[in-house]
From TrEMBL:
Source organism per UniProt: Calothrix parasitica NIES-267
Presence of keyword Nucleotide-binding: yes
The encoding gene: purD
Entry protein name: Phosphoribosylamine--glycine ligase
Taxonomic superkingdom: Bacteria
Family as reported in the entry's similarity comment: Belongs to the GARS family.
Length: 425
């Protein structure tokens, strides 16, 4: 079997790595891939852009690709699945219509309200003045969101009025480009975030292991939002009871609502939840693809061949497959970021210590790297140092032991990933 993975991040490296563990997979091609995918045996990078639909389609047809997997949200929102399916290719990832669930927070809110899915109260604005008036009337804390795709950075949890007003102005002044045509102003929920990624064929929906991400740049979950600074799975806060309720009140209702809107959604549906101390939950947002860095802790625990699950979704036979099998262990990942991230940062720094980190028991997934003569940094989030353990304490110990072996100029990482679960290890 030949698989093509679209994307260049840590998520895509983890996908390629997982596929290559299967005896059914002969070859993986990553478009454009990164320094990590370039280093995998039976894997190659193809220097095309993720929005070059024609180039990707032509290559896939000529190379006899059996499965195309779309990693990032942007090409999904642009309609890559629709285009490649029109060429007769099997594609894992929702259509352009389905990808609206991430591409427009306002549209996703309308689906949640229509389906009676628990979520925060919110109002959508297309001008700054009424949004600012609403904020002043309702007070803080309050959440300000750019409506469209903003690479995980379009959300501000404002704790004072000036911060809230500045966030609205920044969005409408074009900080996030076309993502800033509308602003969603939302009540601020408190508790712990949980990422529930689920596989669906449009009829049946099956959750993967629940994970918890650390989105803030600073230790103690402080500072600016990022694409994610570390994660662990399965998060203990997502109990069996809670996951049963999520299945009925979120996953099933969402798929039914999409079908009612004549959207045949096949791929990953990712629900970001806020779980309160009393065990109640609300949906913060939906994503239309694998989470990053959640994928880097979920896939190492997966025993069922990933390509079999994806083909079952594409061929609409998910209900018929056996229960998904998992390692009864814990996984954790820590992100090594470029100095200055999530603001301006430099690229081109030489990376050392990957082999030593893996010899210490970690698996290193590359996010923003390039392999030329040397391995160099090529993004804000550079590496995901991942490990599996009998418990969270062991997994985190191995991940941090691996991180200590790695070095590049300006490297930054949080030293408190998993602080909520260490005592539960």
């Amino acid at each position: 079997m030949k698989i093509l993975v679209v994307g260049s991040g840590g998520r895509e490296h983890a996908l390629a790595w997982k596929f290559l563990q299967s005896s059914q997979v002969e070859r993986v091609v990553c478009v454009p891939g990164n320094g990590g995918t370039a280093s995998l045996s039976r894997c190659e990078n193809l220097a095309l852009k993720v929005d070059d639909f024609e180039g990707i389609g032509d290559f896939a047809l000529k190379a006899g690709i059996n499965l195309v997997v779309i990693g990032p949200e942007v090409p999904l929102a642009q309609g890559i699945t629709d285009y490649l399916q029109s060429k007769g290719l099997k594609v894992f990832g929702p259509s352009k219509a389905g990808a609206q669930i991430e591409a427009s927070k306002a549209w996703a809110k309308s689906i949640m309200q229509e389906a009676d899915i628990p979520t925060a109260n919110s109002v959508v604005f297309n001008k700054a003045a009424p949004a600012k008036s609403y904020i002043k009337e309702n007070g803080v804390p309050i959440v300000i969101k750019a409506d469209g795709l903003a690479a995980g950075k379009g959300v501000t949890v404002a704790t004072d009025l000036n911060q809230a007003v500045e966030a609205v102005e920044a969005i409408f002044n074009g900080q996030f480009g076309s993502a800033g045509e509308f602003v969603v102003v939302e009540e601020c929920l408190t508790g712990q975030e949980v990422s529930v990624l689920a596989l669906t064929d449009g009829l049946t929906i099956k959750p993967l292991l629940p994970a918890q991400d650390h989105k803030r740049i600073g230790e103690g979950d402080t500072g600016e939002n990022t694409g994610g600074m570390g994660a662990y799975a399965p998060t203990p806060i997502a109990t069996v009871n809670l996951m049963e309720r999520v299945q009925k009140q979120v996953l099933d209702r969402t798929i039914n609502a999409l079908r009612a809107n004549k959207i045949d959604y096949r791929g990953i549906l990712y629900a970001g939840l806020m779980v309160t101390p009393t065990g109640e939950f609300k949906v913060l947002e939906f994503n239309c693809r694998f989470g990053d860095p959640e994928t880097q802790v979920i896939l190492p625990l997966l025993e069922t061949p990933l390509e079999e699950l994806m083909l079952a979704c594409i061929e609409q036979r998910l209900e018929q497959i056996p229960p998904i099998e998992w390692k009864q262990k814990a996984a954790a990942t820590v992100v090594a970021a470029s100095g200055g991230y999530p603001a301006a940062y430099e690229k081109g720094k030489v990376i050392t210590g990957i082999a030593e980190a893996e010899a210490a028991g970690a698996t290193v997934f590359h996010a923003g790297t390039q392999l030329n003569q040397e391995l160099i940094t090529d993004g804000g989030r550079v590496l995901n140092v991942t490990a599996i353990g009998e418990n969270f304490e062991q997994a985190l110990q191995l991940a941090y032991a691996g991180m200590e072996k790695i070095n590049f100029d300006g490297m930054y990482y949080r030293r408190d990933i998993g602080y909520r679960v260490i005592s539960n290890g």
